[in-house]
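Exercise 7b. Backbone tokens:
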């Protein structure tokens, strides 16, 4: 059986988790506590870079969430989560890559706010400005269909849809982007999003780990 090594608070893990659920693939969920468990030899044996997620399928170790999603789409093509049309496929790929390469790095300074921790005001403002650029692009990429480039859920949703709803809860408003806002609402109503949503207890656990790391890096 497939194993997914993950952390509940991680958007990178969650996108794979949702995809497995949407494709109704049987798998075992293995939680990796980010308090040092990811540095133990047992985990380094499956990913020497000590990152999550990792998917293990019959002895084959896959790292990097986008590569894992491509693998799952190729191995479990039903339901299809990549369009066949060239333009639609390009839209899905754009959304995935812009989310990973532009949106997520720029808005990382906002995530301590979710944990009730102080952040850098200048970097937070820069992150919000970058998010607005991405949101405008995504608003224009959405058409009359409910999902990016498709009538059905795609990998664009599992990637962008595990980041944008979080940002909407961190003061990055979607009010100027009605299509993107409605898209978020559709995703949040899906059972797979509800099943994989981090609980308050999970967030508190991560907050404790984050605070301990901060204390170690600022001993004074």
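Sequence design result:
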């Amino acid at each position: 059986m497939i194993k997914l090594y993950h952390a509940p608070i991680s958007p990178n893990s969650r996108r794979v988790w949702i995809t497995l659920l949407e494709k109704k693939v049987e798998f075992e969920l293995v939680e990796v506590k980010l308090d040092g468990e990811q540095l133990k030899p047992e985990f380094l044996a499956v990913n020497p870079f000590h990152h999550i997620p990792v998917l293990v399928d019959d002895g084959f170790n896959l790292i990097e969430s986008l590569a894992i999603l491509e693998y799952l789409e190729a191995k479990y093509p039903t339901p299809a989560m990549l369009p066949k049309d060239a333009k639609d496929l390009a839209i899905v790929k754009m959304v995935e890559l812009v989310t990973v390469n532009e949106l997520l790095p720029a808005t990382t300074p906002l995530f301590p706010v979710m944990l009730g921790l102080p952040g850098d005001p200048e970097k937070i403002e820069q992150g919000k400005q970058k998010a607005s650029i991405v949101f405008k692009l995504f608003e224009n990429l959405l058409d009359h269909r409910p999902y990016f480039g498709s009538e059905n859920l795609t990998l664009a949703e599992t990637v962008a849809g595990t980041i944008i709803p979080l940002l909407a809860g961190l003061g990055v408003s979607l009010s100027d982007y009605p299509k993107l806002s409605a898209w978020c609402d559709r995703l949040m109503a899906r059972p797979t999003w509800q099943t994989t949503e981090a609980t308050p207890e999970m967030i508190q656990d991560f907050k404790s780990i984050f605070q301990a790391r901060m204390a170690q890096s600022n001993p004074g």
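Instructor comment: The chain has a mean pLDDT of 90. The two ends are 48 Å apart (CA to CA).
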